[in-house]
Amino acid sequence: MRTLATTLVLGLFLFLPSLSGQIVPEVPESKDRSPHLEEFNGRTVFFVDGMPFVALGVEIPWRKLIYGKHSETLRGYDYLYPAARQMGLNMLKVPVKWSVVEPGKGVFDFSYVDHAKAMAEENKLKLVLGWFGHYASGDGTIYRNLTSEVFVPMDIIEDAETYPRAVDADGIPHHNTVSYDYEPIIQREVDAFRAFMRHLREVDSEDHTILMIQVENEIAVFGSDRQNPKMWRDHSTNSNRIFAERNFQDDLTFRAQRFSENWIRRLSDAGRAVYPLPLFLNFVGGKVADWMIGGAPGEHLPFYLDNCPNIDFVGLNLYTSADSSTNDLRAALERYRVGRNLPSITETNSGDDHVAPRLAYLSVGEFGSPIFAPWALNTSYPTRFEPYVLSDGTLANGAFALHECYSSLNKALPLIAAYGGSERTAVFMATHPGQTFSQWKELGGIRVTVSGSHNGQALVINTGLHKYFVIGYKCGVSLRYPESGWPGIKRLKVEEGCFQSNTWVGKDAERYTVNQSSNTLAVSLSEPQVIRISW
Questions:
Q1: Which three-class secondary structure state does DSSP give residue 267?
Q2: What's this model's pTM, rounded to 2 decimal places?
Q3: In angstroms, rounded to a whole number, what is the distance separating the alpha carbons of residues 133 and 495?
Q4: Which of 10-24, 203-217, 226-240 has the lowest mean pLDDT?
Q5: Residue 55: is its pLDDT beyond 70?
Q6: What is the Cα–Cα distance from 397 to 354, expressed in whole angstroms?
Q7: What is the pLDDT of residues 340-355, one digit of tens each?
Q8: DSSP letter string over 381-436?
């Protein structure tokens, strides 16, 4: 029998006093073991297997899966899974083309999905799957060629009468772009997405290998030439009728409203009803109008948050200069801090630069992102010929910098997931890549100073009164420890370690310095590590 005294002891063990005197859990647990978003301490936190989690990955492409030869090409990306594990990723972002899972009308084949799941489990990775029913990063949104970039089933491509094509402002229909203002295409895709989610529920509801689903990719009307107003909306007969009947005044508002309410909402509602995994969209960085948050015709963040209750967040695909400042990176994420949205990076630079590692610390630490994923493991962008993984599976170029970043974050992942984006966290790094730096911030009433070089960085988390975790590498961290003299120094505890599940496992740190003249405690993080400081 549990007595009142036992209950109180357990409560004291599981919960710590906050700076305000309230009792909050240091690393919370959820009774719901499935991947889901849940409120903790006033924030929305991503949980997996009952623990706070951040999906730290890289995307893989889709081009090796050839239409009509899916069984022969199914293993085309197998070499990337062990490389991802070696890099310190905990997740791979894997696109799934609609054409792959529905080779014939109403006939479904999930062998590629099952194979990706098996490869992930073999390499101790999780998966984020991208539903590619409509692709918008180049010319054509239902196909770009008839081999590797066929996105919808071939019977839809071949039947423009049942599935009418989108028409530009000059009245020219584009055969590789379907109109989403006709019911047959919507219903076909809803049925396929529902079948896809049903299969995931059947094969993964116990394993939780699959974390969340990206619904479509960088949605737009025609895909290419996004700055051309003639392609900002569909001008097919049905689209023109709806535009006139609803008294729309501009093409961008019309497209965003229609895409969100008549397409993405219906897909996400159908998928969530079958299997309630988190669902998200990804938008292109940039803008086509000053008022529009999103970089393609069809995107506008507030419309999707308002019209699609089952879209959990909208991620940002941010490609930027290798020399981008921290202010630039923060500003891009800040634009996506709208309403209930969780600003996240769902694509970014994958070349031999330090954009991704720096952006990861900012995104996860300052904005509380549930996912961070550059594009792509074997293809570098926006620079060319600098892939993370070579064709023989060896690591190269920017893989080592990303490994440093991810391996440091993984050592304290439950803690970072629980506190990232809150006032209890602070991120320190140089303003521009390669610079030496020294910065200070007040955190929990204590002055924290970080100095570093060679693209070192740190994330400091204050979890309670006189308790700090320092995550980082290639930097030194000092705290204005107020009790540096004797006997206060006896209460000081400095440990190096990591979290195993939600439990801190540490050992006494071998090297730290207490300066009694300046009342400072200093630790050095020469390599990726986590230091726990308490008194």
A1: helix
A2: 0.94
A3: 49
A4: 10-24
A5: yes
A6: 11
A7: 999 999 999 999 999 9
A8: -SSSS--SB-TTS-B-TTHHHHHHHHHHHHTTHHHHHHHTTSTTEEEEE-SSTT--
Residue 74 in tokens: 């199914």
| 74 and 215 together in one domain | yes
Beta strands in 7-90 (DSSP E): 15-17, 23-25, 36-40, 43-48, 51-52, 55-59
- What span, in angstroms and rounded, lies between the C-alpha atoms of 363 and 318? 12
Higher pLDDT: 482 or 13? It is 482
Structurally, the chain folds into a number of domains equal to: 2
Residue numbers of the domain that contains 319: 47-410
Verify that 393 and 466 share a domain, yes or no. Answer: no
Q: Tell me the residue length of the chain.
A: 535
d(CA 316, CA 276): 22
* Whole-number Å distance between alpha carbons of 415 and 464: 12
Would you tell me the crossing angle of helices 237-245 and 251-258 to the nearest 10 degrees?
100
- Note whether 469 and 382 are same-domain residues: no
pLDDT 10s digits, 493-524: 999 999 998 899 999 998 899 998 888 999 99
Write phi, then psi, for 505 (nearest 5 degrees).
-120, 110
Report the C-alpha gap between 175 and 384 in whole angstroms.
30
CA-to-CA separations, 69 to 13, 66, 95, 192, in angstroms, rounded: 57, 5, 17, 20
Cβ 98 vs Cβ 112: under 8 Å: no
When computed from its CA atoms, the radius of gyration of the chain, rounded to whole angstroms, is 25
Q: Can you tell me the mean pLDDT for 301-319?
A: 98
What average pLDDT score do residues 448-472 get?
A: 97
